[in-house]
Amino acid sequence: MSVVAEVLEARIATGARLIRWLEDADPRGRTALRELYPHTGRAQVIGVTGPPGAGKSTLVDGLIAEYRRLGRRVGVIAVDPSSPFSGGAVLGDRVRMQRHAADAGVFIRSMATRGQLGGLARSTFDATLVLDAMGYDPVLIETVGVGQDEVDIIQLAHTTVLVSVPGMGDEVQAIKAGVLEAGQIFVINKADRPGADQLHRQLEMMLHLRESGGDASAAWHPPLLATVASRDEGVPALAESIARHREHLEAGGGFARQLAERSEQIMLGELRSAVTARIIARALDDPQAAAIIEKVRERRIDPYTAVDALLARFDLVTAAQT
Amino acid sequence: MSVVAEVLEARIATGARLIRWLEDADPRGRTALRELYPHTGRAQVIGVTGPPGAGKSTLVDGLIAEYRRLGRRVGVIAVDPSSPFSGGAVLGDRVRMQRHAADAGVFIRSMATRGQLGGLARSTFDATLVLDAMGYDPVLIETVGVGQDEVDIIQLAHTTVLVSVPGMGDEVQAIKAGVLEAGQIFVINKADRPGADQLHRQLEMMLHLRESGGDASAAWHPPLLATVASRDEGVPALAESIARHREHLEAGGGFARQLAERSEQIMLGELRSAVTARIIARALDDPQAAAIIEKVRERRIDPYTAVDALLARFDLVTAAQT
Fold first, then answer.
1. Residues from chain B contacting residue A83 (CB–CB below 8 Å)
2. I need a labelling partner for A86 at 20 to 30 A (CA). Which of A245, B38, B119, B133 fits?
3. Buried b / exposed e across B28-59, counting CB within 10 Å, b at 16+?
4. Of B40, B302, B308, B310, which to mutate for an interface test with A (greatest number of A Cβ within 10 Å)?
């Protein structure tokens, strides 16, 4: 049986192999993905994000259990953005999710940056497509909510769940406030802890400010939920909110639009990498271009002057102007 | 007097204006930078990074006071990576640094992503050059230690100070372990808190593991320091370690090499953006290319197939192979 047929039959080992091929830019990955593509676009992709220590993994674990109870097959991509330094996924308490390891209705994949061509967002996008083609729905993406990588990854999701936690200090709250605009569902996890009421009021106020600034007609009003994920409290209500957000998106055409936009973003990112790789390969073969690069290394010219010179050398200034 | 002359005379208002021009891609910024470039490369650039809540701002504030005591003029770039959503720098407790606001020997600049062409790392690089040309030395870059942006920014620094704090839970420690390899100086801040001894042992063990894996000859052995930044405890010792790292770099040629490498990285990043912008501009003017992009939006072809088609259309596949 072909890789494509096996993925469509949801064979986990084949799905994992295909994700690896795509990470490694193995041409077999691209070929299979091309055939699988018409079978994608069905899964609701859910981003679960928030600061370190907010209990995201425990919450994802609870959501998996809830979706299994509802008879749904669940894909999970656990993203570790810190790993460019460490060379491997930092699993931390994600090990807890392992209670689902023997369940064929759950596919959990950890992703790190190292060794992935084209960046973490692209690899996460690819993995999402594979899980989607395998019939997993929803696909959960768990990630720490800080940094540009996170922004890119969050943009892959139809629905973003922002997880906060009481008593983590001002700076954490400030960062959370910064990512506020990205969330469609807000969760205060560890809601039995001191400070939960205060955090609730803060978030409510911020959501109010956000709503008053936006387009009110047909808008989604982000719910603010409380959970104690370690005791599964509030998790069914969260799953319900996620389902309601899907309905909201489908009613307004947002579900398909989201898929189209993220495909376009991924295409532009890929185009960027591919074109640059080709220009650099050409530059290294060209003595005049190589001399420009050498001058930058010796700090004899600044990098921006060098870029202008390289673009002129490859006639790209003219190309843009015609 | 020209902008360049005023920057070299360390006029703060002019320096701030030049940084803004560079952020906005105002051509006057590039012109001035080209002239200023020979006057750069003197400042030691120091990254101060760590998880939210580690007390980085307080530590930076303490370092400013220490450097002022030593008669040094200090530049500070406070980077906020979370702001693509919020549209402004999250200042949080950075306000504390304001006690230096009236001191002409201190230049503090907050940076956010929004509105900056070419990304946060490039803007931070530009600001570092301006502060360097103004004669500030050292230049401190404060940033939260999570995400790819952070990695890029950390790579701008000659010396990276990794700040940890006791009692922040396992996930935080795991992320910190992930960025371990980037640090040249390790600080346990809030070292009067419970758990400091345990964190010290953990970091010591990780540093030992890291050293045993690397090249031992002429290597820098990262010191592990304890501070209580809110009481200025341990801050002079940190400043000494930073000075020793500079000596180490200068002795081994690493100081100049670091500058050359970061110039090259910035050039490649700029080349990437510039080339892609030109290719996309061409594609939008070209009906066949526009049709390919439209197919991606309609999800009729996958983004990777589209990239191959676009590259072929612009003859870039051949260009790379010749």
1. 178
2. B119
3. ebbebbebbbeebbebbbbbbbbbbbbbbbbb
4. B302
Residue B276 · residue A276 · CB < 8 Å: yes
- Least CB-CB distance to A320: which of B146, B278, B296? B278
ipTM, two decimals:
0.77
Of B145, B178, B278, the CB nearest to A319: B278
How close does chain A come to B165, measured CA to CA in Å? 13
Q: What is the distance in angstroms between the Cα of A271 and the nearest Cα belonging to chain B?
A: 6
Asked if A189 contacts A227 with a C-beta cutoff of 8 angstroms, the reply is yes
CB spacing of B319 vs A278 below 8 angstroms: yes
Q: If contacts are CB pairs under 8 Å, which of residues 22-51 in chain A contact chain B?
A: 30, 33-34, 37, 41, 51
Query: Are residues A148 and B113, on separate chains, in Cβ contact within 8 Å?
Result: yes
Helix segments in chain B, DSSP class H = 3-8, 12-23, 27-36, 56-69, 119-133, 148-154, 170-178, 196-213, 235-252, 254-285, 287-297, 303-313, 316-321
Question: Tens-digit pLDDT profile for chain B (322 aa)?
Answer: 899 999 999 999 999 999 999 988 899 999 999 999 999 999 999 999 887 778 888 999 999 999 999 999 999 998 865 433 333 334 444 455 566 767 889 999 888 754 445 577 888 999 999 999 999 999 999 987 555 566 677 788 999 998 888 876 554 444 444 456 678 999 999 999 998 998 898 888 877 777 665 555 568 889 999 999 999 999 999 999 999 999 999 999 999 999 998 898 888 888 877 877 777 787 778 898 889 989 999 999 999 899 888 888 876 544 444 3
Residue A108 is inside which H or E element, if any? strand A106-112
d(CA A133, CA A42): 8
CB A239 within 8 Å of CB A63: yes
B263, B298, B305: which to substitute to probe chain A, counting the most A Cβ within 10 Å? B263
